[in-house]
Each structure stands twice: as C-alpha cells, then as structure tokens.
Design brief:
This protein has 400 residues and is an alpha/beta fold. It contains 15 helices and 16 strands.
C-alpha cells in the first residue's frame, strides 16, 4: 500500500460488497482490512456503496473519495430513475450528505452500454449519455472498458476520446491498458489512468508511468517542492528524468544540480536526507509536490528550512512525541521523563487536569495546558499511540 501511494492515489474496491456477498450486518470478508487501508494513503474506495450511511462511514475512516457504481444507474425498490436511466434521487441525496467533491461515479461500459452489478448485467444506457447525465453529481468519472478489463489487449482510444470530449470533469480510465505508450497517450488526451493487471504482471512500471506523464514538453526540468509530513514547506529543487528515477529507486529525494550539472541526493554528504513518502504532480503535470520525512535541517546554512533562518525545528506535538520517544530510547542520568511509569503518568494527568480546571487567567491556562499535554504525550508513548491516531479519530467523529 505504501509503495502504491508513493506514485498516486490508490483505488480499493470491495468486490464482495459489489456482488452483495455480505453478512447480515452489511460487512464482508474484506471489511476489516479495508478499514486498515483507508488511513495509509490517498485512498478512493468503492464496491457496494448504496446508501449515504456507508459513504459517510468510509469517509470518516479516512477515504478521500467514494466510488459509486451500480447504485447510480440501478434504482432500489421504490425508487425511480429519470428518463436517462440515472438514479437522480439517490445521487442528490449522496451529494447533500457528503458533497460532490467526495464522489466518483463509475461509468463502466460493455460495448458502449453501462454495465452494473459487478459487470454481471448490461443496461440500455449509452455510455456517453449516462456520463453526461451523472457528471453534475461528482468530481470525477471512472471509466472502465469492461470487455478489455484484465486482458491487457489495449484501451479503446476512440471511446475514450468521445467520452473525454463529452464531459469536462476529471476522467480516470481503466481496462486493457497494457503499455507505457498507452499511458502517455491517455495523459495527452487529458485523462488519468488506473492500473491493475498490467501493473501486477510487470508489463507497466509505476515509476516509468509517473515520470513519463510529467510535462517534459513544457519544461526541461520539473520543479519539486519538498514538504514535510507535518506540513512544513522545506525547499524547492529541480529534477530531470534521471533524478526522479533515483528518487524512486532509493527512497531519498534527489535533484538535478543546475550549478554543477550532476545528480544531487539531498543530504548525501551531511546525512540530512529527505525520506520520500509520496510524490504528486500538479494539475498541469509541470510541478511535483514531494511529501518527505526530514532527517535533520534542510538548508545548507543549517536552517531547518530554506525559507527561514532558524536552525530549530518548529515545535509541534509530533516533535514533542519524538523528544519523549528519544528520552525513553536513550535515557540519560537525571531524565525526569524516563522515570515516568504508566502508573505514575496517569496520576500526573489527573493532577494536571485538576490544576487546569482551577487556572484563573490566560497565562495559568497556558502553563497548565502545557503540563497536561506533556504528560498525555508520555502516556501516549507508553500505549504506542501517535498524534496522528488521535487526529484521525477526531476527523472520523467530524465526518460521522
């Protein structure tokens, strides 16, 4: 999952849910692992999403977007579709519940007709008509050429071009993609690509696909913005194809030095490397955002970022966690933190919480909040809980 996420968004489809192979509570054999995957990257999820409750639950668990398939074209008992065959009642309800920005509608087609129910049935809805009818309910469309899916026999480019000219939203294409040339051709048509069989069989490399889809005709060197996993903008550099290849091969952010005309892996000599989490191209494919984990100050001056003069890492709760973890991993004589057992830290949390409630002015509140957060963070360390875990839970409650 982490490897896939390095190159782009990851689509996870619960086929059991799509085929209604569900348990009485609505779950499937895949539900547990699906929930674990949703916070591990930029994930869009689909398969059997037929009501707003399930859609909201998946978003609350970390999915970025929801893929709706059959339900957009197959009304449930008691519902009616419009004259185009689209289930507008369901789609309007879904937009109101989660917003069209979180919705992808899958326009799977066999021989130019919309296919539903895990592709086991083909409707009489024309692909182009159906796509145009549902476009206003979503932020993007996912087109799968069903008869080509899994065959690696090549995409139906004529159908893709007709669909691309018919809609203006983002269009992701799947089904039959078998070569790097097809991926770049689809990119030039203004389409993104979802890979499956070609990836698993090794016919297409994610690394080559990512690099080839960058807009090299526009710029000879691609600007790369490095941003920490906590959101700090660290530096800007430039990369050619070779630099991107080395970045993916080593996991360390690598640039092309315009001054020395050589490849340059950031921190290769100082040790202050940038571990790559993921790379994302912008909408024009001429700039890349690299999310990284820094191993020390980034700027050659010794500053933490190239956009500040301070050598100090900006203080954050995550930084506090790393300091506490270091105190326990390498305790030094006199370290108070290292003496805090789980039992003792729980006692301190109760003490500090009471003192916080009794604080009488702003300065006292700040002081007591700082004490409480420190001890809470120590307890979190003992229980192997991160601030990301806590924020994910708050995000889940917000979206529930």
């Amino acid at each position: 999952m982490a490897e896939f996420d390095r190159y782009g968004e990851v689509a996870v489809i619960d086929l059991d849910a799509a085929l209604r192979n569900t348990k009485p509570d609505g779950s499937t054999a895949n539900t547990a692992i699906l929930k674990k995957l949703l916070r591990l990257g930029n994930v869009r999820v689909g398969g059997g999403i037929r009501d707003t409750k399930k859609a909201k639950e998946l978003l609350s668990l970390g999915a970025e977007k929801i893929i709706i398939g059959s339900a957009a074209f197959s009304p449930e008992p008691g519902q009616e579709s419009d004259f185009t065959g689209v289930n507008t009642v369901f789609l309007e309800r879904m937009v109101q519940a989660i917003g069209r920005e979180h919705i992808i509608i899958s326009v799977d087609a066999r021989d130019g007709k919309i296919a539903v129910k895990g592709w086991t049935e083909t409707t009489e809805i024309n692909l182009i008509d159906g796509a145009k009818a549902v476009e206003s309910y979503c932020s993007e469309l996912l087109f799968t050429c069903v008869e080509k899916e899994g065959t690696m026999s090549g995409i139906n480019m004529d159908m893709v071009r007709e669909l691309r000219s018919a809609v203006s939203c983002r269009l992701v294409v799947a089904g039959g993609v078998s070569s790097l040339e097809e991926i770049t051709s689809l990119e030039k048509e203004g389409c993104d690509v979802q890979l499956g069989m070609a990836l698993y069989t090794g016919k297409v490399s994610l690394k080559e696909g990512f690099i080839s889809c960058l807009n090299w005709e526009k710029v000879p060197l691609i600007p790369v913005v490095a941003q920490s996993d906590t959101g700090e903008v660290l530096m800007l550099g430039y990369a050619n194809r070779e630099a991107f290849e080395k970045t993916f091969d080593t996991g360390k952010l690598t640039f092309w030095s315009r001054t020395r005309n050589v490849l340059w892996t950031k921190g290769a000599s100082s040790g202050n490397t940038l571990d790559v989490i993921r790379l994302r191209a912008d909408c024009d494919r001429d700039t890349v955002l690299a999310t990284v984990r820094p191993n020390g100050p980034v700027c050659h001056t010794g500053a933490w970022t190239c956009f500040s003069s301070s050598a100090d890492r900006p203080y954050s709760l995550s930084y506090l966690s790393s300091i506490i973890a270091g105190r326990f991993a390498n305790p030094v004589p006199g370290s108070y933190t290292a003496t805090l057992t789980p039992e003792r830290v729980r006692e301190k949390i109760m003490e500090e919480a009471e003192e916080l409630t009794e604080a009488e002015d702003k300065n006292e509140v700040i002081w007591e909040c700082a004490d409480l957060l420190y001890f809470v963070n120590v307890l979190m360390h003992h229980e192997n809980v991160s601030w990301k875990d806590v924020l994910d839970e708050l995000d889940r409650r917000h979206k529930k």
